[in-house]
Write a sequence for this structure.
Protein backbone atom coordinates (compact mmCIF):
# COMPACT_ATOMS: atom_id res chain seq x y z
CA UNK A 1 0.00 0.00 0.00
CA UNK A 2 2.98 2.32 0.36
CA UNK A 3 3.99 4.48 -2.59
CA UNK A 4 6.41 2.98 -5.08
CA UNK A 5 9.64 4.76 -5.97
CA UNK A 6 11.08 7.92 -4.39
CA UNK A 7 8.79 9.55 -1.86
CA UNK A 8 7.45 13.06 -2.18
CA UNK A 9 7.99 15.42 0.72
CA UNK A 10 5.48 17.38 2.77
CA UNK A 11 6.11 20.31 5.08
CA UNK A 12 3.22 20.03 7.56
CA UNK A 13 2.26 23.02 9.71
CA UNK A 14 -0.50 23.68 12.23
CA UNK A 15 -0.82 26.86 14.28
CA UNK A 16 -3.06 29.33 16.04
CA UNK A 17 -2.81 33.08 15.48
CA UNK A 18 -3.41 36.17 17.61
CA UNK A 19 -6.40 38.05 16.17
CA UNK A 20 -4.38 41.26 16.04
CA UNK A 21 -2.14 39.67 13.39
CA UNK A 22 -4.93 38.23 11.21
CA UNK A 23 -5.02 40.88 8.48
CA UNK A 24 -1.24 41.19 8.29
CA UNK A 25 -0.87 37.41 8.08
CA UNK A 26 -3.36 37.10 5.21
CA UNK A 27 -1.56 39.79 3.22
CA UNK A 28 1.84 38.27 3.96
CA UNK A 29 0.82 34.78 2.84
CA UNK A 30 -0.75 35.93 -0.43
CA UNK A 31 1.73 38.61 -1.50
CA UNK A 32 5.04 37.40 -0.06
CA UNK A 33 5.33 34.07 1.71
CA UNK A 34 3.65 31.66 -0.72
CA UNK A 35 5.42 33.09 -3.83
CA UNK A 36 8.73 33.07 -1.94
CA UNK A 37 8.41 29.43 -0.90
CA UNK A 38 7.27 28.27 -4.34
CA UNK A 39 10.33 29.96 -5.86
CA UNK A 40 12.56 27.51 -3.93
CA UNK A 41 13.63 24.66 -6.26
CA UNK A 42 11.58 21.54 -5.57
CA UNK A 43 8.52 23.28 -4.06
CA UNK A 44 5.41 22.27 -6.00
CA UNK A 45 2.32 23.39 -4.12
CA UNK A 46 1.06 25.21 -1.01
CA UNK A 47 -2.34 24.80 0.63
CA UNK A 48 -3.74 26.81 3.54
CA UNK A 49 -6.80 25.76 5.54
CA UNK A 50 -8.85 27.15 8.43
CA UNK A 51 -10.60 25.01 11.04
CA UNK A 52 -14.32 24.46 10.66
CA UNK A 53 -14.46 24.00 14.42
CA UNK A 54 -11.76 23.61 17.06
CA UNK A 55 -8.01 24.01 16.89
CA UNK A 56 -5.27 24.37 15.77
CA UNK A 57 -7.02 27.08 13.77
CA UNK A 58 -4.80 26.93 10.69
CA UNK A 59 -3.35 24.00 8.76
CA UNK A 60 -0.76 24.52 6.00
CA UNK A 61 0.92 21.96 3.76
CA UNK A 62 3.70 22.41 1.24
CA UNK A 63 4.27 19.61 -1.26
CA UNK A 64 7.86 19.18 -2.49
CA UNK A 65 9.52 16.79 -4.91
CA UNK A 66 11.31 14.93 -2.09
CA UNK A 67 11.95 15.35 1.65
CA UNK A 68 15.52 16.35 0.78
CA UNK A 69 14.21 19.64 -0.63
CA UNK A 70 13.40 20.66 2.96
CA UNK A 71 17.08 20.27 3.85
CA UNK A 72 18.42 21.92 0.69
CA UNK A 73 20.83 24.88 0.89
CA UNK A 74 18.30 27.09 -0.94
CA UNK A 75 15.50 26.39 1.52
CA UNK A 76 17.67 26.57 4.64
CA UNK A 77 19.00 29.93 3.43
CA UNK A 78 15.42 31.27 3.36
CA UNK A 79 14.81 30.03 6.88
CA UNK A 80 18.04 31.64 8.07
CA UNK A 81 17.14 35.06 6.61
CA UNK A 82 13.49 35.91 7.41
CA UNK A 83 12.14 39.03 5.68
CA UNK A 84 11.07 42.03 7.81
CA UNK A 85 7.41 41.15 7.30
CA UNK A 86 8.06 37.52 8.24
CA UNK A 87 9.72 38.68 11.45
CA UNK A 88 6.66 40.75 12.29
CA UNK A 89 4.07 38.09 11.46
CA UNK A 90 5.84 35.31 13.34
CA UNK A 91 5.25 37.20 16.59
CA UNK A 92 1.54 36.41 16.29
CA UNK A 93 1.92 32.65 15.80
CA UNK A 94 0.90 30.42 18.70
CA UNK A 95 0.98 26.65 19.36
CA UNK A 96 3.14 26.02 16.31
CA UNK A 97 3.49 22.43 15.06
CA UNK A 98 5.90 22.07 12.14
CA UNK A 99 7.47 18.93 10.66
CA UNK A 100 9.23 17.85 7.48
CA UNK A 101 7.54 14.62 6.34
CA UNK A 102 7.61 12.01 3.62
CA UNK A 103 4.43 11.04 1.80
CA UNK A 104 4.13 7.39 2.82
CA UNK A 105 0.78 6.75 1.12
CA UNK A 106 -1.66 8.56 -1.12
CA UNK A 107 -4.91 7.27 -2.60
CA UNK A 108 -4.78 6.93 -6.42
CA UNK A 109 -5.48 10.12 -8.34
CA UNK A 110 -5.42 13.79 -7.35
CA UNK A 111 -8.28 14.74 -5.04
CA UNK A 112 -9.48 18.00 -3.53
CA UNK A 113 -12.69 17.84 -1.52
CA UNK A 114 -14.86 20.48 0.08
CA UNK A 115 -13.22 19.69 3.40
CA UNK A 116 -9.94 18.20 4.59
CA UNK A 117 -9.67 16.38 7.92
CA UNK A 118 -6.17 16.29 9.40
CA UNK A 119 -5.05 14.31 12.44
CA UNK A 120 -1.55 14.00 13.85
CA UNK A 121 0.25 12.34 16.72
CA UNK A 122 3.07 14.33 18.25
CA UNK A 123 6.72 13.33 18.46
CA UNK A 124 8.21 11.21 20.11
CA UNK A 125 5.39 8.67 19.81
CA UNK A 126 6.29 5.43 18.01
CA UNK A 127 4.17 4.57 14.95
CA UNK A 128 3.60 1.10 13.50
CA UNK A 129 3.74 1.91 9.77
CA UNK A 130 1.85 -1.15 8.59
CA UNK A 131 -0.94 -0.63 11.11
CA UNK A 132 -1.29 3.01 10.06
CA UNK A 133 -1.48 2.00 6.40
CA UNK A 134 -4.19 -0.55 7.23
CA UNK A 135 -6.09 2.22 8.99
CA UNK A 136 -5.78 4.41 5.90
CA UNK A 137 -7.17 1.58 3.75
CA UNK A 138 -10.20 1.27 6.04
CA UNK A 139 -10.89 5.01 5.70
CA UNK A 140 -10.81 4.76 1.90
CA UNK A 141 -13.88 2.52 2.02
CA UNK A 142 -15.99 5.38 3.39
CA UNK A 143 -18.18 6.71 0.53
CA UNK A 144 -17.74 10.33 1.67
CA UNK A 145 -13.94 10.03 1.41
CA UNK A 146 -12.24 11.18 -1.79
CA UNK A 147 -8.68 10.36 -0.77
CA UNK A 148 -6.35 9.58 2.11
CA UNK A 149 -2.73 10.52 2.70
CA UNK A 150 -0.29 9.20 5.31
CA UNK A 151 2.62 11.45 6.31
CA UNK A 152 5.64 10.23 8.29
CA UNK A 153 8.12 12.56 10.00
CA UNK A 154 11.62 12.86 8.57
CA UNK A 155 14.73 13.42 10.67
CA UNK A 156 17.46 15.82 9.63
CA UNK A 157 18.37 19.49 9.27
CA UNK A 158 14.81 20.55 8.39
CA UNK A 159 13.75 19.42 11.85
CA UNK A 160 16.27 21.65 13.62
CA UNK A 161 15.41 25.07 15.03
CA UNK A 162 15.91 27.88 12.49
CA UNK A 163 16.19 31.65 12.78
CA UNK A 164 12.56 31.82 11.70
CA UNK A 165 11.46 29.30 14.34
CA UNK A 166 13.09 31.36 17.07
CA UNK A 167 10.76 34.26 16.19
CA UNK A 168 7.68 32.23 17.16
CA UNK A 169 6.66 32.42 20.84
CA UNK A 170 6.96 28.99 22.43
CA UNK A 171 9.00 27.46 19.62
CA UNK A 172 7.82 24.57 17.43
CA UNK A 173 6.50 21.12 18.28
CA UNK A 174 6.86 18.15 15.93
CA UNK A 175 4.65 15.28 14.79
CA UNK A 176 5.51 11.60 14.37
CA UNK A 177 2.83 10.93 11.72
CA UNK A 178 -0.38 12.34 10.27
CA UNK A 179 -3.49 11.22 8.42
CA UNK A 180 -5.03 13.71 5.98
CA UNK A 181 -8.41 12.86 4.46
CA UNK A 182 -10.29 14.78 1.76
CA UNK A 183 -14.08 14.50 1.94
CA UNK A 184 -16.88 15.69 -0.32
CA UNK A 185 -18.65 18.13 1.98
CA UNK A 186 -17.76 20.32 4.93
CA UNK A 187 -20.52 18.73 7.03
CA UNK A 188 -18.80 15.34 6.64
CA UNK A 189 -15.65 16.64 8.33
CA UNK A 190 -16.46 16.89 12.07
CA UNK A 191 -17.69 13.30 12.31
CA UNK A 192 -14.58 12.01 10.58
CA UNK A 193 -12.42 14.13 12.89
CA UNK A 194 -13.72 11.94 15.72
CA UNK A 195 -12.72 8.74 13.87
CA UNK A 196 -9.16 9.64 12.84
CA UNK A 197 -7.70 9.79 16.38
CA UNK A 198 -9.00 6.26 16.98
CA UNK A 199 -7.27 5.07 13.79
CA UNK A 200 -3.99 6.69 14.81
CA UNK A 201 -4.23 5.43 18.39
CA UNK A 202 -4.51 1.82 17.19
CA UNK A 203 -1.20 2.17 15.32
CA UNK A 204 0.77 4.23 17.84
CA UNK A 205 2.32 3.82 21.25
CA UNK A 206 3.86 6.42 23.49
CA UNK A 207 7.63 6.61 23.91
CA UNK A 208 8.84 5.96 27.46
CA UNK A 209 6.85 8.14 29.88
CA UNK A 210 5.68 10.65 27.27
CA UNK A 211 1.96 11.22 26.86
CA UNK A 212 0.36 10.08 23.61
CA UNK A 213 -0.81 13.40 22.12
CA UNK A 214 -3.22 13.19 19.18
CA UNK A 215 -5.08 16.11 17.60
CA UNK A 216 -7.69 16.07 14.82
CA UNK A 217 -9.70 18.80 13.16
CA UNK A 218 -11.80 19.44 10.05
CA UNK A 219 -10.61 22.27 7.80
CA UNK A 220 -11.98 24.35 4.92
CA UNK A 221 -9.63 25.37 2.11
CA UNK A 222 -8.58 29.05 2.10
CA UNK A 223 -6.12 29.00 -0.78
CA UNK A 224 -4.03 26.85 -3.09
CA UNK A 225 -0.84 27.98 -4.82
CA UNK A 226 1.09 25.98 -7.42
CA UNK A 227 4.48 26.31 -9.03
CA UNK A 228 3.38 26.19 -12.66
CA UNK A 229 6.95 26.04 -13.92
Amino acid sequence: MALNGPRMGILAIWHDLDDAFAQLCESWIVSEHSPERLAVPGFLEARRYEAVLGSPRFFISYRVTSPQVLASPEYLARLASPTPQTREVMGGFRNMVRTACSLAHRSPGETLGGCSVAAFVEHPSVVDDEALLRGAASLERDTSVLGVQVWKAEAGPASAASSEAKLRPGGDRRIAAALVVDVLREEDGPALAEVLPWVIRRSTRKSAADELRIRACAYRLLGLWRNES
Remarks:
- Residues 9-223 form a domain with the Alpha-Beta Plaits fold (CATH 3.30.70.100).
- Residues 1-5 have pLDDT under 50 and may be disordered.
- The longest strand covers residues 93-106.
- Residues 22-38 form the longest helix (17 residues).
